[in-house]
Structure formats: C-alpha cells, structure tokens
Design goal:
The chain is mainly alpha-helical. 77% of the residues lie in helices and 3% in strands. It is globular, with a radius of gyration of 21 Å.
C-alpha cells in the first residue's frame, strides 16, 4: 500500500451551511458572548461571596470554568471558519490534535466533576454528621485536581498515539477535530486498533463510570429523602435538581456526539446535531446554575440591581 504522509486536514462540516454564513456567524457569536458573560459572572460571584464559598459551589465554579475553556477552544475558531471559509477549512495536523486534546479532556473532566458533585451531595444528605470531617478544603482541592489531571493524562496518551498514525485520507466531516475521527482517517493496522481500544477505555473511565456513579449517588439520595420528612426531602431534592439537569444535558449531548461519529463512519453525517452538541451544553450550564440555584440567583439579582426591596 502506498501511504502518503498527511500533514494538513480539511474540515468539511460547514459545507451544508456555507450559503448561510452571516446568519450562522451572528447566532454563534451571540451564543459565545452569552457564555462568556454568564459563566464569568457566576464564577466571579462564587469566588467573591463568602456565603458561596462551600464545596458544592466550588464544584459548580469548576464546571462553569470547564465550559468557558471548552467554549474558547471551539467558538473563536468556528466563528473564523464560518466568516472566512466557503465550507471547507484547512487546518494543520498539529493544530487539529491540539484542539482535540483540549476539547476531549475538558469534556471528560466535566463528567468527573459531575461525579464529584454527586459525591458531595451524597455525603451532605446521607452522611450529614461526617460531612464536615470528610469534605475538607484539602479534599475538595485534591478532587478538583484529580478531575482535571486524570482526563488530561489519559487523553494526552490517546492524542500522542493518534499523532503517530499514518493517514491515508485528509477530509474530516466535522465542525471541529476529535481523536476518533482522526483515527478513522488512518490507514488501519495494529496502531489504529490500539488507538480505538484506548479510546474505548478512555470513554469507559471518564464517561461511563462517572455517569454510573452519579446515578448510584442520586439513587441513594432519593432513597434517603423518601424516608425523611417532606420539608427535608424538598430541600434536599431542590439542591440536587440543578446538578441532575446538567448531568442529563451532558449525557444527551454525549449520546448525540457518539451517534454522530457512527453516522460519520457510515457517510451520513448531519450538520444540525453537530451544532446542537456545541451550543446546548455551554448555554445550559449558566442558565441552570444561575437561575435554579437560589443562592446564586439572589446574588445575581443584587449585583444587577433588580432585587425587590424587602417589605
């Protein structure tokens, strides 16, 4: 087999909407500005208000910071591609691998952070007498570092392995780069099989296992709530609801992303789900945490000067 060393790739995910560039640019720009402002506002409030300096809000700030970094890795490049390209975008292989590393590692970190939130709520509701002794500031910082460093290490290994694969094709039917799609462009062989197996292990370790832990933790919380008073159950479930909404948001988006990869492999990708996967998770996070959590919403209203005067 004659193998040509491919040093640049062509992203053709925008070809179906190339005729609607100005409208798409306006929509994406509005979404990105909203994400920047809303995420930054909630993170600022959590860091600056003493009443919000609790483990639960530390994890909320980490999730929003993750979303902010992932948005910055996606939106500016996507906006430039929509504005200046005509459907196909040339990108170097190194830049594509770099974007894949940032986006996938931050996405995996989000699931681990949601699992850390579930553990925090489980200990707070099911083990309240031991909560203060277990969930110390040192424990929270260690958990946050683990949620960021573990995915970065695993994804870094997958990206390094993918960077050594010889590519036989250069057209990528995607809006952005990911490791799985790069492996699909390779010439096959043992190295490509190893990359796919590592990808499966990565998905299991950073998505499936944390998701299972989240379901187990909130299942235990629900069991405890059913045995307590109505007031206690209402208060406990109210604090868990935003985290569950964000978890469902990420799970559905990840499911659509995996489906898109299969359709891409079959040659039948659709552009609409791709844009939804990019936009919905980043928009939902600040809306859920800014509006559904009363403590955060109260500070936002006070900061914006729209809080009602006390009677």
């Amino acid at each position: 087999m004659n193998v040509t060393s491919v040093t640049s790739l062509t992203l053709v995910g925008l070809e179906p909407v190339s005729a609607h560039g100005p409208v798409l640019f306006a929509v994406l720009c509005s979404v990105y500005v909203f994400v920047l402002c809303s995420d930054s506002l909630v993170v600022y409030l959590i860091c600056s208000q003493n009443s919000l300096r609790r483990p639960m809000f530390a994890f909320v700030a980490a999730v929003l910071l993750n979303s902010l970094c992932a948005s910055t890795a996606l939106y500016p490049k996507l906006l430039a591609d929509v504005l200046w390209s005509r459907g196909s975008v040339q990108v170097s292989r190194a830049a594509c691998l770099g974007q894949a590393f940032v986006v996938i590692s931050l996405g995996a970190s989000s699931f681990l952070l949601l699992a850390a939130m579930a553990a925090d709520r489980y200990l707070s509701i099911c083990r309240p007498l031991r909560y203060a002794a277990l969930v110390t500031p040192a424990f929270v910082w260690a958990l946050l570092l683990l949620c960021w460093l573990l995915p970065a290490t695993l994804v870094g290994g997958a990206v390094l392995l993918a960077s050594r694969l010889p590519l036989c094709r250069s057209r990528l039917r995607r809006l952005y780069c990911d490791v799985y799609s790069l492996v699909r462009l390779s010439c096959g062989g043992r190295a490509a099989l190893q990359s796919e197996l590592l990808g499966l292990l990565l998905s299991a370790g950073t998505v499936a296992l944390p998701a299972g832990f989240v379901l187990f933790s909130y299942g235990r919380v629900l069991t405890v709530c059913l045995r307590r008073s109505r007031a206690f159950s209402s208060r406990a479930l109210h604090t868990c609801l935003p985290h569950l909404l964000v978890f469902v948001n990420y799970s559905v988006s990840t499911g659509i992303e995996l489906l898109q990869r299969r359709l891409q492999a079959a040659g039948e990708p659709s552009i609409v789900p791709s844009f939804l996967v990019v936009m919905i998770p980043t928009v939902m996070n600040p809306v859920v945490y800014g509006l559904k959590m009363k403590e955060v919403r109260r500070h936002i209203e006070r900061l914006l000067g729209c809080q009602r005067a006390a009677p």
